[in-house]
Amino acid sequence: MSVADPILEVKNVSKTFDRVVRALDNVSIVVRKNEIVSVVGENGAGKSTLMKILVGVYQPDSGEMYHLGRRVPFPKDPLDALSRGISIVYQERGVIPHLKVYQFLFLGLEEKFTRLGRLQLGRIISLAKSVFEELGLKCNLASSMYELPPSTQKMVEIARAILSVRLMVGMDGGSEITPVIILDEPTAPLSIEERDELFNYLLNLKKSNSFIFVSHIIPEVMKFSDRIYVLRDGRVVAQHDLSSEKITEDQIFREIVGRESYYDLWTRYVSGVSAVEGGRVVLSVRNLTKKGYFENISFDLHEGECIGLFGPAGCGKSEIAKALYGEIAADAGRILVDGREVKLRSEPYVRVKLGIGYFSGETGRELFFFWPIRKNVSIVNFDKVAKKLLKMIPVISFNAEKSLTEKIMKKLRIRAPSTETECYSLSGGNKQKVSIGRWLEKGPKILILEDPTIGIDVGAREEVYEVLLEMKRSGIAMILVSDDPKEYAILCDKIISIKNGIIQTTYTNEEFRRLMEL
Amino acid sequence: MNSELKRWKTGSVVVTSTLRLVKASPAVWAIVTLIVIFSALVPDKFLSISNLVAILKNFAVTSMLAIGPTFVILLGSIDVSFIGIWMFGGALVWLLYPYLGLASIVIYPVFGLLVGLFNGVVHVKAKVPSFILTIAVTAIFAYLTTYVRNISGLLTLTVPAYDFLLESPIPYIPSSFLLALPLIVLALFIMFFTKLGTYFCAIGSNEEGAKLAGINVEKYKILAFMLSGLLVGLGSIAIFIHLGCRARVDFDPSELVRGLAAIVLGGTPLAGGMGGPQRTLLGALVYVLIFNGLFLLPGVDPNLLKLYVGTLLLGAVVVASKALKGALIA
Q1: Residues A115-130: tens digit of each pLDDT
Q2: Which residues on chain B place their C-beta less than 8 Å from a C-beta of chain A?
């Protein structure tokens, strides 16, 4: 077989939901032997619909599928897809925390290793060992899944996908069929270093497998893919062969959104960011320490100022943010909000009362997905939506809730049919906006933002930045923790760089940009 | 023309909101179906005045047992101490009547509140699973009640002085139902018009999210248990009157099933996060209708009634939990 031999090919796939929403429109893609093919696009561009068709979760309205050059029907269900060598690793945790690594690896495949109803543990473990050795995966088979770092968990998940294909197809050693493994946003829960680790792993696995890589993080897509398909509004708007073409990140951004990328926004806003001089100090942190995470952290945050805590993943920046919000407790030091001492062990509700708002970037943790937007907004704003009955009993007014929500939706341009729309049905960007926006009318003094734009596409990102900058202009102080240097450049007046839990240097926005060559 | 349009609009609003209610709560279907079936099978018995009054009485009792614990189940915890509060609270009323006179009935809500406080604090602070905790509490109080009865040398613990409450001021409407009514209103008010209802649902559906939204989760968990105890204590007054001003002295597990069945049949899943007292009321009606209708059917052995009802409930709960998948908070 030559390198260019296609293993899997779909042609002219179309899929319509509820007869109205056209999710895919004549999409054709090819996966060749031993390559990483990326599918990129905004949320709602049709990436996941396409993947679900490939693994048999959805049936397309029309289209053709070819496997090793032969025309085949689309898979009926995931098991059917598996027997054709296609498997998927989903974005959300597919890991079962309390299983041992080898138990997880063979989950659902046990019957192939059962004799007279007894699980042949010895066979499982020796096979697991040889598979791990072959894939270059180093971890203790007997440890529980939750003990592994997130990147290793992902690797085990990928190993499991490959293994299940092999066992389903019945390959020995595996040369007949190359497994096609779909990775849906595999890097979302990982830090930068962990991402590199995962990619090195994938590059090694490429020798005997092919991958479809679904992502919206353009730099990593460019770095590791052989070819890229860009989806927009259910169509393939561009495809690139990176081995023969020279293409820039910006170009791909433009293809994804079909308009300017947020880098342009950055240049537009960055000049507008100016440190607030002489503003009141709203937050003072003095010698804040948590053993093993961070040490002697001190800084002052002024009204309308945004301070970025910058550093590699694991440097303690996210733990500092969590300690300020009360999700974890620092061991020593002082936190003063408006000069008032905050107990280090106090819970988030104490800090909320003092005027601290928090956004973790994980809407799944913060929002109540099955509630309407209105309820998600009012839950942090009860003092605003309650009227006093007999001057004592606060009674929630539906109308007040509604008008408050409408106000926020208008301000943040949250796109939803009404205030009663349940949050699960919103797009990632709109969920993010609800999550941030609910603090807006509460008038927090301080907003702590952790990865405020993680997991959302370029277009929505731009809007989130605009909202944050507007809040900042209105006097809200912010603390930013992120993985994207450009995000710091857009939002922060001051950037504190942290390494191994210790403050290294404090940069102004300008110095930071010069340093980062932005 | 204009007024006609307005009337038509109001009509359509009523229809759509009714439809939404039916969709959200399968219990409404069950109630309609049960009424139709029993009215067709045994019309003269089922639709007789005395039977309808009996249904009303049983509805009052069932909802009074179940409406308080609903708030705890919203949290995703469970509270089965309602049997214990009902039983030993009655014994306390009987014990204290000689000293406090008519005011001794106040002991019911006070006792309920204290038990709720105890449950809440132990559950939250010592992290004891709520089912084990509250069933142990019930066992203790059931035993104490029997103990009081035994040393009293009496068959029942009755306080005849409250007999005047048995008389209902409104014909055909039993006084137990009248006593239950304000509590039903109170529970619905708390659910829909105070932050408690929302907070309980929030904690039940996403505890971490509730914490990040700045809710004092521990405090509201304890409050839910206290509210549950208080409502059960107050509701027990209605049951006390219903039983002829008598404390319940025998522990019967089917009473426990009755309360929980009303909650689950109504559509508040034991996992919490959605539902509420409004649904429990419907569930209580379903339960009462099944029991009452089966009792009237010829050929149904009354001795096996509880067995039939138990089996039916099992089926109904399975169906209800299926129908509820993806259902939203009312």
Answers
A1: 777 777 888 888 888 8
A2: 192-195, 198-199, 201-202, 205-206, 208-218, 273-274, 328-329
